[in-house]
Specification:
disordered N terminus; 5 helices; 5-stranded mixed beta sheet; single chain; about 425 residues
């Protein structure tokens, strides 16, 4: 090869190499300015060509990548514009898959179940545009921790039928310092149209009721819209729930410790009078309006659990099979069957503070007065105890807020 041909060959090789460098560069236009001229493709042209091949589908995942304290109710939403979703996969960090569904129009996805607290989730989503070009998006987030969240344990449960005295009672698992915000996120309405007010007994308990007993046959709806509500500094609600319950027939029973009789009324009419034995003069039964909160066909009653102990610290009584027992107070007041007391019903008050009705051991005889009353009572029924000589039961001792007048009750509202 002559020197002239050799120089022309090197120049051609150099030009070709320069063209390769231009096409493979990611971020510089300098190569194009070095003398490639019209035969060289600029980086702008390369980027434009790549963009024309990119899917127009735009995927959005909420919450954003890296979020913490995310909601367990409203997180993990995936949406797409200018395209349709083809696949969404959600897993925990240990690989457990979370079930979810793509909408019928394939533009959104959400999980089928509520998420867990203090859990990290990973989401991968794929969509395609009208040209079939795929787009991908990934995200990871962590739901609110138990230490930074609160829930309200409520009664009664959804779908229950309860007596006319049953309040809505909510016990929070954390202290609530921002009571107004929490109360505003909780609504209680009744089909009867009765005004309902809520009362805070403490930083962890709020009860709601109307001025007088619920109207029989009405429906009460409790809505908890607590998700994301800051109940205390850095502590957020996680519940988003609607609960409905039914009010049954209007049954109120009146215990008279002086006459030692109980009058059971329905709609204001007496349906049965039952002889009873109330608390002894040394252990009087609380007076006041008490609501049945629990029912047990049989239960154990140990005096040591409620402060009745002998000199050795043992319970003054320990009966392991008390029949037909219904709780009236948190502190241990029950109305229950009594098979061990003979000849006392209607004639003597002998108990440690409970109200006793004649019964049979084993709770198997349906014809005893205690069995009849148990079978004809439901949670939420009211038992009014009178003439015992003791103080009125505290409104927060059980579900007994009816012992507070309406003005006092409303004064305990935070809104």
């Amino acid at each position: 090869m002559t020197d002239g041909k050799r120089r022309k060959g090197l120049a051609a090789a150099s030009a070709l190499l320069g063209g390769v460098l231009v096409l493979s560069a990611c971020s510089s236009n300098d190569a194009g300015a070095s003398g490639g001229g019209d035969d060289n493709t600029s980086q702008a042209q390369v980027d434009e060509a790549a963009a024309q091949k990119t899917s127009e589908a735009q995927i959005k995942i909420t919450p954003g990548n890296g979020s913490d304290n995310a909601s367990i109710n409203n997180s993990a939403a995936v949406t797409v514009s200018k395209g349709t979703l083809t696949e969404v996969k959600m897993t925990t960090t240990d690989g457990t898959e979370v079930k979810g569904e793509i909408s019928a129009d394939k533009t959104s996805w959400k999980p089928s179940t509520q998420l867990e607290r203090a859990t990290t989730y990973k989401l991968t989503a794929t969509a395609q545009d009208s040209e079939g070009r795929a787009a991908h998006e990934n995200s990871s987030f962590t739901t609110v921790s138990k230490s930074n969240s609160f829930i309200g344990n409520f009664t009664p449960d959804d779908g229950k039928t309860v007596g006319v005295g049953m309040p809505v009672s909510i016990n929070f698992d954390k202290e609530i310092t921002n009571k107004a915000a929490v109360q505003k996120a909780i609504t209680v309405n009744t089909s009867s149209g009765q005004e309902v007010a809520c009362h805070w007994f403490s930083t962890q308990r709020m009860d709601c009721r109307p001025e007088t007993y619920w109207q029989e046959g009405s429906t009460v709806t409790l809505k908890l819209a607590l998700d994301g509500v800051e109940g205390a500094d850095g502590v957020y609600g996680v519940q988003q729930k609607t609960v409905t319950f039914k009010i049954g027939r209007n049954q109120v029973s009146y215990v008279d410790a002086k006459t030692k009789q109980m009058k059971v009324t329905q709609d204001g009419k007496t349906v049965r009078t039952i002889p009873i034995s109330a608390g002894s003069p040394e252990n009087k039964t609380y007076e006041g309006q008490m609501v049945i909160s629990e029912k047990y066909k049989e239960t154990r009653m140990d005096g040591s659990t409620v402060g009745f102990t002998d000199d050795d610290g043992k319970g003054e009584y320990d009966i392991k099979d008390v029949p037909h027992a219904m709780r009236l107070s948190t502190s241990g007041t029950f109305i229950h069957g009594n098979y061990w007391g003979k000849g006392i019903f209607g004639s003597a008050n002998t108990s440690h503070g409970c109200v006793g009705l004649e019964d049979a051991k084993g709770a198997g005889d349906p014809n005893t007065p205690a069995a009849w009353f148990y079978d004809n009572s439901i949670v939420g029924d009211v038992v009014v105890v009178q003439n015992t000589g003791d103080k009125t039961v505290s409104p927060d001792n059980g579900l007994n807020g009816w012992n507070m007048d309406w003005a006092q009750w409303k004064a305990g509202s935070a809104v």
